[in-house]
Batch of 4 targets.
Target 1
Amino acid sequence: MIAAVLLGAPGSGRAQTPMASDSVRAPALFTYRDAVLAAGFAGATVAMFPLDRSVARRLQNPSVQSNRFFTNGATDLRLVADPGGLIVGLSAYGVGRVARWKNVADLGLHTVEALSVAGLTTVIFDGLIGRARPFVVGDTNSTDFHFGHGFGNHDRQSFPSGHATSGFAFASTFTSESARWWPHATWIVGPLMYGAATLSGFSRMYDDRHWASDIISGAAIGTFAGIKVVRYNHRHPSNMIDRFFLGSMVEAGSHGDVKAGFSFTY
């Protein structure tokens, strides 16, 4: 995946010919499609509440839990979402700045921004909603909510899922950014990224850490965080964060070292 990004990146982070997608007026930050998507996520979350217990019960069946493939896969997928997304974001930013690949630096910076926005939103909701995790109450009480009890209490930070939020924030950022400079591959990138994020969320249910509705709500937050961060930054290319971090001067020295500095004249 990263190799595809690097191969699709331009060779310089300096003046470049505007791409076709950049020459078209960017869409509004909030659109009618956003409202439809939000309504779909909200409806799916509510519809899943009555099914949370039965889904949890099936996944915690001893025959399912004893499957080594599922167990190992759940661990790997959990790490892919968190801290995998952050590691990829920071790495892409560093590589983009050193190699002067603006698109890769954009991807890395905006990934970290989206993860930060999604993470903060999740912390707030987890604390306010105070839903008990499945392993705390078993599969008998999926409606154990206590307003405000999630702050500082890991056992009551189930809704929404932080791993699902991170996974979908990374997926939506990666898909949105790559669509700007690699549009013909969106039909491949999108399903791969969102599919991996979905499996990551599924792994959290398998590990008995979240209900199914937690995953859907986390997917909603992460998806919107990625889409909005990318859309905002490309509508406001001179915003302070982009000017500072994308204007930083990072380059390889003549003796294999790395030189760094900062500029607001990117």
Note: The chain has twelve helices and two strands.
Target 2
Amino acid sequence: MKTKKLTIIKNQHLTWYDLESPQKEEYEMLKKKFHFHPLDIQDCISPVQRPKIDEYDDYIFLIIRLPYYKKREKVILASELDIFIGKDYLITIHRGKVSTLKGFVEECQNYEEIREKYLKYGPGFLLYEILKRMFDRCYPLLDSIGTEIDRVENRMFHGHEKETVKTIANIKRNTINFRKIMKAHRQVIKKIIKSDKFFLNLNGAHSNYKTITYKNILEEIENIWDILDGHAETIFALDRTNETLISHQLNKVMKTLTIISAIFLPASLITQFFGISFGDAPFTKNLIGIFGILFAIILTSLLMVLFFRGKKWL
């Protein structure tokens, strides 16, 4: 069954309700049908800044935050996935930006084999598959950050230091945002592993299979975090290197300007001396004197150039 905002997928073991961008009436339906805690409903309505898990007698409420890339602003932001887990149901609530989940919903809705494969072992197994797919989608984002870092490094060492400053700042922002989004998920998965509610293995027993599968997710989160740490260290190191290169280029410019000023300083002194308004200034009454002054200016400038070259400043 599917409406504009609600998709219902079911078999004899489990019912999966998927709500996309629900409005007030959908939330009222959840309250009446499942008697969820009002604070949990409020968390679904208002964006939450961290993952969390709350366990009740008859259901578990779970919030997962996942990264997605907003192309226009070139920034990584968080999308929120709210999940209610009961004995014979699982409810997912999202506000768009979760294409991986939407694709999985369509697969389960359209293909009976896939539906049976993931629904017949209960909500714990379906939740595992959802989380696995959602965290798997982090890797393309990590790869794109890595590609940007490589591109920055290549440009930086080919004379484009100033042009890469903005790109480096954007990568740093995205890396920081990614780390903020992923930070608390480890504790959430650890709590799921410790919980005995609604998590059945393939044989209908408890514990071992659940522990193994959710430990895989925990390892995947750790792996994502390690890659993020590597990206963060690399981009911060490149930022420092880029600043050093820019500073070096600026020092070269300042050195060149200082040398030019020093070369023309004697010439400026000579012209100022002979420009003084006193009656009988030497060499200013005839053409030979004027050329002599000009020769002195050129000579002193050349001597300054030879001096700087001798000092290896040029």
Note: The chain has two domains: 6-248, 251-310.
Target 3
Amino acid sequence: MSEKVLQKFEVKRLEILDENGNADSKLMPELSNEQIISMYEAMVLTRKADEKALSLQRQGRLGTLAVSFGQEATVIGSAASLKKDDWMTVSFREEGAMLYRGIPLENIFYYWGGDERGNTAPKGVNNLPVAVPVGTQTLHAVGIGMAANIKGKKIASMVYFGDGGTSEGDFHEAMNWAGVFNAPVVFVCQNNQWAISTPREKQSKSLTLAQKSFAYGFNGIQVDGNDVFAVYKACSEAVQKARKGEGPALIECETYRMADHTTSDDAKKYRTEKELMKWKAKDPIERLRKYMEKEKIWNQEKQKKLEKELDEMISKAVKKFEDTPAQEINAIFKFMYAKMTPRLEEQLSYAKEVAEEIKKEEKK
């Protein structure tokens, strides 16, 4: 005789701020006007820095890059929930979160310019470098969480990944280990509807991505990823529980990638203008600005002042990036191990020979 084992679960969805800037006062997190303004300024900085980086790339002054147009509420709302001693592990579309956590603006340009110094975090800033291989960074975040448990440190380890990342084996291994070892990890899924050209509905048969957490023994929630208040509240609650030793959580932020996947992609080939315009009406920056204006904590004068200040800040960062001498060629090889292996030394020697030949050709 067999018995049926059934575990019921319910996925909740959190929405606080609508497209017209109206907030549900019963659900609003405790935030001062100063905190709200700070998050708004960070979102605008993220958008403007992306716009500048995209312009530089088109001029051949930066390499291939990924921007976060439309996803600013997800990255800033989540980053704002962390404390200084918490850890953050990113993929390649969270420059806003990195800036909010103390990464210098010029580092963003260094990184997309192919300079490894862009991955260097200032002392005391607990951010891991950008991880481009999809899903791999989830394991790093779980490792940090497990280490914190072993050392008895009450911290949270937050990690970002996209909807496409949930199809990777690394993601499932990370979720499983986080559940088994009660690691204080907050998994933040930036569900921007497209994994390059693969739509969300072809990524998983699950009704939500948040529900994947229940298979691994912990809770998940879906939030409006274009609502910075909803993202902040869900992440804050998850971070607080993680710090208390109550284990991991998965937060699915439903947002939209308003730009191409990267500068080497053309989204027009696989999605419609109608879909794009539908999501542009949900712009996270616009809805927060509308809320702030209704609450009389923001106006056009403050907006103009902010934009001028940010433009100046970005210009200075670009100048610092472009005025910095290029690294020596050995920088490509020396950061892989504490001591270079014979194979790497051989590659470095060959690279130097090629570089010398190029210089000779340029002098002719």
Note: Strands lie at 12-14, 87-89, 157-162, 185-191, 194-195, 198-199, 219-224, 249-254.
Target 4
Amino acid sequence: MIDLHCHILPGIDDGPETLEGSVAMARTHIAAGVATVAATPHVDWEYGNRAADVREGLPALRAAIAAAGLDLQVIPGGEVSLTLSADLPDEELRALTLGDGPWLLLETPLSQGAVGFERIVQQVQMRGHRVLLAHPERCPAVQRDVEVLETLVRGGVLCQLTAGSFTGQFGREIQRLSLELVARGLVHVVASDSHDTVRRPPG
């Protein structure tokens, strides 16, 4: 199993603060049957991460996981803020794709005031990038109007839902919407969006 959305890099965002915490996450991933994870720290205005920060953090993380005798492959990526994506050059966006493939993980906005976000997604597509939307079920704009998401999917966007959304971790309404999105054929990837081993664990 592959987890395409995971905040496993230490000390870089709101994921684990230490390598020990990252290794603990790796153990939990393996116990859940995961063989490969994409390290997708927040690439946004708050944390200031860029592709170089992800690349610099990977060798130490991989070495610590191997030293613990764990068999978990970690590939590069990033959870890119929609608003920041409009300002990043294309070469930076390409360096942030999942596993150096064609897909860019864009964070669907979680704020109530985020309206018209689909236009930014479409602009990123027009620049030649293929978009995987992170947790659209938690986006208020999608909760108000699922047609927004259907339009994006018809335009080639894929959707990644968070596993916890299906189990009620974020409330019954998000759970209901997640199942509705599955029924509508709008779910392409389920990922953990894990941040630690307790509050937001892998699985």
Note: The beta strands are 2-6, 36-39, 42-43, 73-76, 79-81, 103-107, 130-134, 158-162, 189-191.
